[in-house]
Amino acid sequence: MTQDGQTPEQLESELREQVILLLKKSGWYQGRRIDISKYKERCSEQGIELFPAAAAFLEEYSGIDRVAHFKYMLNHLDGPARESEWHEYEFHFVPNAVEELNCQAEMHIITTAAQEDCYCLGLSGYYYPAVTAIGRSGKLYLLHDYEPTVRVFDHLLESMEHEVGELDMITSSLLEPNQIMVQTVYGPQLSPEKVPNPFQ
After folding, report:
1. pLDDT tens per residue across span 112-127
2. Where on the phi/psi map is residue 192: left (φ > 0), alpha (ψ -120 to 50), or beta?
3. In what order do the strands lie in the sheet with 79-83?
4. Residue 24's Cα: distance from chain center in Å?
5. Full-model pTM
6. Helices (H) and strands (E) in the chain, counts
7. ∠ CA 69-73-77, rounded to 5°
């Protein structure tokens, strides 16, 4: 039992529900299948093998918002817990991710650790997003620049649970619209910027 009386199983269930809400906030929904046939054609023309596991991932997750905003509780030893500012969970899945993100070295580390062909999806994660790749097996491989370990997951939800598992996320923040005003060098702007799906 935890301090608030929850069992580890209850905490796991609550975390899974929260990461599903975070994913839904970004535009994902159960059964989502986006037409990426034009991207498949481009890959074929360019000699890029888009194996089935990579294609299935992109059909389900490409084109969701690049970031999903959420809040969590900050616990202080010397005072009451308080709500954090808005934070971002990143889903930056892009075509030609290795070149666009300049992550050739990271992909070499990932494919060496994975011991299977991998397709680079882009970046995903909280705070310092990880280079994210998928193998022929369907396993996801994440590599952060602050640690040498390649993390392996069976599903995007599992990787999200790993990323935010230590945070006390505020569920109500996951139910709010995924658009906030942020200050930039160009003045206030809405985040995330709504852009077309780059895989269509």
Report:
1. 999 999 999 999 999 9
2. beta
3. 79-83, 72-76, 168-169
4. 12
5. 0.91
6. 7, 11
7. 150
